[in-house]
Amino acid sequence: MTDEEARIKSIGGGSLLIAWQLKDKRALVIGGGEVASQRVESILTADAFITVLSPENGLHPRTKRFIDLRSDRITYHARPFSGPEELDGADIVLTALDDNDLSRSIVEMCRARRIPVNAADIPDLCDFYFGAQIRDGPLQIMISTNGNGPRMASLIRTKLQKGLSGREGAAITKIGRLRNKLKERAPGVGGQVGKERMEWMTAMCNEWAMEDFTLLDEELMDRVLDEGWEKNKRVPSLNDIEVRRPQIQSWITTFILPALPTATAFVTGALAATLLLTHRPRP
Ligand SMILES: C[C@@]1(CC(=O)O)C2=NC(=C\c3[nH]c(c(CCC(=O)O)c3CC(=O)O)Cc3[nH]c(c(CC(=O)O)c3CCC(=O)O)/C=C3\N/C(=C\2)[C@@H](CCC(=O)O)[C@]3(C)CC(=O)O)/[C@H]1CCC(=O)O
Ligand SMILES: NC(=O)c1ccc[n+]([C@@H]2O[C@H](COP(=O)([O-])OP(=O)(O)OC[C@H]3O[C@@H](n4cnc5c(N)ncnc54)[C@H](O)[C@@H]3O)[C@@H](O)[C@H]2O)c1
């Protein structure tokens, strides 16, 4: 069996990680505690309409703040869950209750109506899990341990965050705009034009430093497309579009970052030598 065949045979045991487009769809959150407040934030991120159902004395201050500040998206009913008719019109249901039996019966009602459901206290019955998230503009990263270690997911998020510059979201926003402008100039789906567009965008992303995309405004994007796409379908340099990196940024990327490994090795070596010399055993 080849490695690829073995890999294919071993696929499985995870979840389908997808970016669910919930914009303007209807989400029902049953419960108003701390977990519910986290659910509300996740769903607000996806621009859905939310109904929260919970007695007022069980509202967590964060849930209350969301309800007060986002009445454009959130409808609040200050009462306990009353029965299956509450589920009418819901595209997604989330329970965050301190009542396991009620959670279980709501899951059953959702199953009967084929509404995707997450019950915060019954992983085995969930259609999907939440995960730890990193968000930076259009960039979203989700970490899942598939129910094994939610706290670990949160810690891994913190680790990953340290490896990001914080400018990825801004760069991706610009790339999105550039892609749309390119599609306006070279419209059509699939075929030769689609292939050329994809090759060009792939080369742009591969060859430009991510930070450089943040330098583009509308006019510069047009220049990138004039110079790079219209003329000869090649990737233009910053020079070609007459742009210079801000001095400090170019200084860091040109000199400091490449020299960092050598400098670190040098300092470590010097420290080790000093330690050896000063702690030599006396004859
Ligand atoms: C990632 C995150 C996303 C979010 O909730 O948005 C999330 N839980 C988070 C935190 C967290 N949850 C818990 C602790 C205490 C420490 C610990 O147990 O580790 C902490 C830590 C903390 O609060 O820091 C307790 C807990 N969690 C579940 C149960 C029920 C059970 O297991 O029976 C119990 C009670 C267990 C008990 O009674 O002992 C179940 C689930 N929690 C999930 C997601 C799904 C699996 C995700 C995955 O494995 O990747 C799953 C299966 C269902 C779901 O919720 O969708 C969020 C981090 C958000 C962030 O930091 O950004
Ligand atoms: N999945 C996770 O990440 C995670 C993490 C921690 C806890 N949990 C579990 O999630 C559940 C919720 O946790 P929490 O900290 O938000 O609890 P909580 O006690 O703060 O909240 C429970 C909420 O349920 C509401 N409620 C109770 N009966 C209701 C009813 N009949 N109709 C509508 N609302 C009702 C209460 O008003 C309250 O708002 C617990 O079962 C907990 O074990 C899950």
UniProtKB/TrEMBL annotation:
Molecular function as annotated in GO: ferrochelatase activity; precorrin-2 dehydrogenase activity
Protein name (record): precorrin-2 dehydrogenase
Major enzyme class: oxidoreductase
InterPro entries given in the database record: Met8-like, Met8_C, NAD(P)-bd_dom_sf, Sirohaem_synthase_central, Sirohaem_synthase_N
Span of domain Siroheme biosynthesis protein Met8 C-terminal: 169-233
Transmembrane segments: 255-277
Entry EC no(s): 1.3.1.76
Domain Siroheme synthase central residues, every copy: 136-161
Keywords for this protein: Membrane, NAD, Oxidoreductase, Porphyrin biosynthesis, Transmembrane, Transmembrane helix
Pathway info: Porphyrin-containing compound metabolism; siroheme biosynthesis; sirohydrochlorin from precorrin-2: step 1/1
NCBIfam families tied to this protein: cysG_Nterm
GO-annotated biological processes: siroheme biosynthetic process
Superkingdom of source: Eukaryota
Catalytic activity: precorrin-2 + NAD(+) = sirohydrochlorin + NADH + 2 H(+)
